[in-house]
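Renewal narrative, Specific Aim 1. Our central claim is that a sequence can be written position by position from structural information alone. The example that follows is taken directly from our test logs and has not been curated for this report. It begins with the structure tokens describing the chain, in the order in which they were read.
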């Protein structure tokens, strides 16, 4: 489900915190992983206690004390709060941290109110005099010109990609070898077959496989790095590593829906899974969807809402709601193509 990065952390801390940070990094884009890991390391070194005992006051104090090194204290405070909040929320969602723990808003106004209300937190802001220098209008003009050209180039690339995506959805038949992978037949006489046999649900599960790169018969055997395990006796629980952008990324994600072992252990008992076979992989994936209150949206055709609710479970939908909106056309196009396959099959 996610990529995972392991870095050596200098100060002693609980293994559970290290594992949580490693799993959390899996959902962070590779280009941002180093900065997120650095902030997490500095935070643990600053608070000197397990994440499960961290309070809002700890987060505020950390944001203040680290900001003295920054040219833009306010933006760095917000970045650190947002990063630590992301880590704490992920811990709550995976069940590692208690769900009663509150996180802070990165909103500037709310942050200032919280700082003023904490009697035990010192204000670590420092002031410094900056020598004013006359503006170099020639350099400023050249900088603005270069920035304008860069923005135009980025917009051109973005528009070109959008047209290619739209073209790919319109000419779906040309890509059928990639997206048209039908799930194995499941016995509809068994109670647990519902809602797996519902066309909309099956089409959505297929869409997950497309975005996770696990289409095809061997998708249920797939592990992170593209390797395959050999037995469905249990989640393989093998940490696989690969180099990406000069960094080693590791994860134990496995199966058609790239379950982390922690997610599998949490939801497999709900469906009374006896093994890691395709049938139970499908059912556990549905429980993950149900847990985010998105199953009814899928069954009633509110597909876009489902994608938005599930991007934290499958970041291949987009890391944020903004990212989901950006690729929504492609996501919906893939889903509708899969749904059409099941509708045609049901009419035969």
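The sequence written for that structure reads:
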């Amino acid at each position: 489900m996610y990529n995972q990065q392991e870095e050596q952390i200098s100060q002693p801390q609980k293994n559970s915190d290290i594992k949580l940070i490693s799993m959390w990094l899996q959902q962070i884009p590779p280009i941002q992983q180093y900065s997120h890991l650095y902030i997490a390391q500095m935070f643990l070194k600053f608070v000197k206690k397990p994440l499960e005992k961290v309070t809002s006051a700890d987060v505020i104090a950390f944001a203040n004390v680290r900001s003295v090194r920054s040219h833009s204290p306010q933006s760095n405070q917000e970045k650190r709060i947002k990063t630590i909040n992301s880590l704490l929320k992920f811990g709550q969602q995976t069940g590692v941290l208690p769900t009663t723990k509150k996180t802070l808003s990165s909103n500037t106004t709310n942050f200032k109110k919280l700082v003023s209300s904490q009697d035990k937190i010192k204000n670590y802001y420092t002031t410094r005099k900056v020598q004013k220098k006359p503006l170099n209008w020639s350099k400023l003009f050249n900088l603005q010109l270069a920035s304008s050209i860069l923005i135009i180039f980025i917009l051109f690339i973005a528009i070109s990609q959008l047209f290619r995506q739209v073209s790919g959805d319109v000419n779906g038949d040309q890509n059928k070898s990639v997206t048209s992978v039908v799930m194995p037949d499941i016995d509809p006489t068994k109670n647990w077959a519902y809602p797996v046999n519902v066309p909309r649900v099956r089409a959505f599960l297929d869409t997950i496989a497309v975005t996770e790169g696990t289409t095809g018969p061997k998708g249920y055997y797939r592990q992170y790095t593209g390797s395959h395990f050999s037995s469905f006796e249990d989640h393989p629980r093998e940490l696989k590593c690969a180099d990406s952008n000069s960094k080693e990324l590791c994860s134990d994600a496995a199966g058609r829906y790239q379950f982390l072992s922690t997610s599998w252990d949490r939801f497999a008992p709900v469906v009374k899974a006896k093994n890691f076979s395709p049938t139970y992989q499908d059912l556990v994936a549905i429980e993950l969807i149900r847990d985010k209150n998105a199953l009814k949206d899928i069954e009633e055709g509110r597909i876009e809402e489902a994608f938005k609710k599930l991007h934290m479970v499958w970041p291949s939908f987009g890391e944020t709601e903004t990212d989901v909106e950006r690729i929504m056309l492609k996501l919906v196009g893939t889903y509708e193509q899969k749904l059409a396959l099941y509708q045609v099959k049901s009419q035969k």
